[in-house]
């Protein structure tokens, strides 16, 4: 079902004490405030069980930042869908541009990961988005189309409904440069229409599409107010409770 979501991708930040502190702060915030969106976090995988123990009532969704394309076995360093399921994780981010850039991840890998996640009842947050070069040369719509089709269009209608998509233009990640609300809206509408063409409008209207890339307390509200933007995947500004809570309030 299409819902409003603010998700924090902590990336490779925070030691265990700092992570625990931020998890506590978020829980306190959730207990004391009514939020008009779901609140999810993706801490480093080392801390996922700690988050699950703390959020006893599933107040906050707990996501891995990545997940293996293999089911089990000799894959040193990897975490499987089955393992995430066994700790009752909510889901996993899949295909983040940093995984693509530094770890050679492709949309074919993403396709396998998304399927494995869905098979275990995990929510995949599938990330796509163009580079600066691709945008400058006017290829952004085509790039996002190819990414979306390769990674997701082998899914059934029932499966794709459960996927959350995060459009994250690479040039806006960690750079302080945000896509304008209009630029983001254009791509979000594009993604939704691709899904509508393949699966029908009813299905497309059920899918949450998040924007990621330098979302801050100052710009969250305007971004979230766009028709096809259902929330944000937040990096740097998810690391401080004050900033993250103000972004959540972008939905108030
Ligand atoms: O990559 C991101 C979230 O996954 C966005 O990061 P920033 O919010 O730091 O730009």
TrEMBL record:
Pathway, per record: Carbohydrate biosynthesis; gluconeogenesis; Carbohydrate degradation; glycolysis; D-glyceraldehyde 3-phosphate from glycerone phosphate: step 1/1
Query: Where, by residue number, does substrate bind?
Result: 9-11, 174, 214, 235-236
What Gene Ontology terms describe what this protein does at the molecular function level?
triose-phosphate isomerase activity
Protein's gene: tpiA
Q: What is its main location?
A: cytoplasm
* The family this protein is said to belong to: Belongs to the triosephosphate isomerase family.
**Which species does this protein come from?**
Kaistella pullorum
Q: Which residues form the active site?
A: 96 (electrophile), 168 (proton acceptor)
Against SUPFAM superfamilies, the record matches this protein to: Triosephosphate isomerase (TIM)
Relate the protein's function as given in its record.
Answer: Involved in the gluconeogenesis. Catalyzes stereospecifically the conversion of dihydroxyacetone phosphate (DHAP) to D-glyceraldehyde-3-phosphate (G3P).
Question: Subunit arrangement?
Answer: Homodimer.
Q: Matching CDD domains, A to Z?
A: TIM
Q: Which InterPro entries match?
A: Aldolase_TIM, TIM_sf, TrioseP_Isoase_bac/euk, Triosephosphate_isomerase, Triosephosphate_isomerase_AS
**Keyword Isomerase assigned:** yes
- What is the official name of this protein in its record? Triosephosphate isomerase
Which key words tag this protein in UniProt? Cytoplasm, Gluconeogenesis, Glycolysis, Isomerase
- Its EC number(s): 5.3.1.1
Q: Which domain of life is it from?
A: Bacteria
Q: What NCBIfam families has UniProt attached to this entry?
A: tim (TIGR00419)
């Amino acid at each position: 079902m299409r819902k409003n979501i603010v998700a924090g991708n902590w990336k490779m930040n925070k030691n265990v004490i700092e992570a625990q502190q931020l998890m506590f702060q978020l829980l306190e915030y959730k207990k004391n405030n009514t939020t008009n969106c779901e609140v999810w976090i993706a801490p480093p995988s080392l801390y996922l069980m700690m988050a699950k123990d703390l959020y006893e009532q599933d107040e906050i969704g707990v996501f891995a930042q990545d997940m293996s394309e293999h089911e089990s076995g000799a894959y040193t360093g990897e975490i499987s869908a089955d393992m995430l399921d066994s700790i009752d994780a909510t889901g996993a981010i899949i295909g983040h541009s940093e995984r693509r850039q530094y770890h050679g991840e492709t949309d074919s890998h993403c396709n396998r990961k998304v399927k494995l996640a869905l098979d275990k009842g995990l929510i995949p947050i599938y990330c796509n988005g163009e580079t600066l070069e691709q945008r400058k040369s006017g290829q952004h719509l085509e790039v996002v189309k190819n990414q979306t089709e390769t990674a997701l269009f082998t899914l059934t209608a029932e499966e794709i409904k459960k996927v959350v998509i995060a459009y994250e233009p690479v040039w806006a990640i960690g750079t302080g440069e945000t896509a304008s609300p209009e630029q983001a809206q254009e791509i979000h509408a594009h993604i939704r229409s691709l899904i509508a063409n393949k699966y029908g409008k009813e299905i497309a209207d059920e899918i949450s599409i998040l924007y990621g890339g330098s979302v801050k307390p100052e710009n969250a509200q305007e971004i979230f107010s766009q028709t096809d933007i259902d929330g944000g995947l937040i990096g740097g500004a998810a690391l401080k409770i004050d900033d993250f809570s103000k972004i959540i309030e972008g939905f108030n």
